[in-house]
Amino acid sequence: MLGRFFGGLFATAPLAIVGGVLSDIWDPIPRAYAICMFATGAFNGPCGGPIAGGFLTMQPNLGWRWTAWITLILAVFFGIIGFLCIPETSAGKILQYKARRLRYETKNWALHSKMDENPLDAHRLVTVYLVRPFVMIVQEPILSLMTAYMSFIYGVLYLLFAAYPYSFHNERGWNIGVASLPFIAFAVGTFLGLGTIIYSTRTNFTKSFVKYGKIVPEERLPPMIVGALLLPAGLFWYGWTSSPEITWVPQVLSTVLIGWGMLVGFWQAMNYLIDVYGFYSNSAIAVNTFIRSIAGAAFPLFTYDMYSALGVPWATSVLGFLCVAFAPVPILFYVYGERIRGRSRFRPV
């Protein structure tokens, strides 16, 4: 348990800062493509884990511990690549490094950057990096509602890691490795979501950007609205085709809609938050990541009991009804988002 705690503690860093990093590197239009690529990996990595883990645990000479060893090997490999290849992306920090270098090269000790005028001390560390994210989640309706919706989607994603084996292994009788293969259909759905976001960005969002000469964050939301419809449809379809008396084909196909709806809903919400908060997006994404990670950890804890008590059709339908309850969120901000943003303390200058 202690190892799991530290694994989660350190693994949260990339998810917490990725929005700010991509915002530093790319302008709004290409940033959408970058986030799409990241999103596809972020969703399909967890989908590939159960498939590999299922077959690994079936091998008597390997066992469940090798799931942890492989994770460690991959983490070290990509950690070294990241350390060697990923530079600092913050413009302010880059200028601070440049000013420091020029001071020593020119001996002109007056050279400094704007960040040097506000050095990071304990008070600033607490107020900016610890307090501000939680102030934002309380005061910002866009952030609070989007975080609630994204946390629910994230929780359902991790719930599926227990729900799929329950349905395909416990009820249909497939072995644990084969019972994880429906995640491939989920991955197909995420690639359809990737195409949806790219198409929307190349058409509606780009036209709006050219027309107004500035970002219109609400133009990120039409694909999210589509996702808000696809996700509950996929969940209802999954639940009510789960009977072992029905062929497995429609139940597996339903996961395409689930993956599609999850990806466009979750990551267009992320794009929207970055556009809305600009400079403050790191704080917004940090508290968003904190809360949705709690949901991701909590949902699998009650999955087995819920599915045992209600059965696959009604347990999955409960999730579908909750998705329907969240569906108005992107519509609300598509209609009233600009007005709400105008009152925000944390809107970009």
TrEMBL record:
Gene3D superfamilies given in the database record: MFS general substrate transporter like domains
Membrane topology summary: Multi-pass membrane protein
CC per GO annotation: plasma membrane
InterPro entries per UniProt: MFS, MFS_trans_sf
Primary localization: membrane
Keywords assigned by UniProt, alphabetized: Membrane, Signal, Transmembrane, Transmembrane helix
Signal peptide span: 1-23
Gene Ontology MF terms in the entry: transmembrane transporter activity
Membrane-crossing segments per the record: 66-86, 142-164, 176-200, 221-240, 246-267, 279-302, 314-337
Protein name per UniProt: Putative transporter
Originating organism: Cyphellophora attinorum
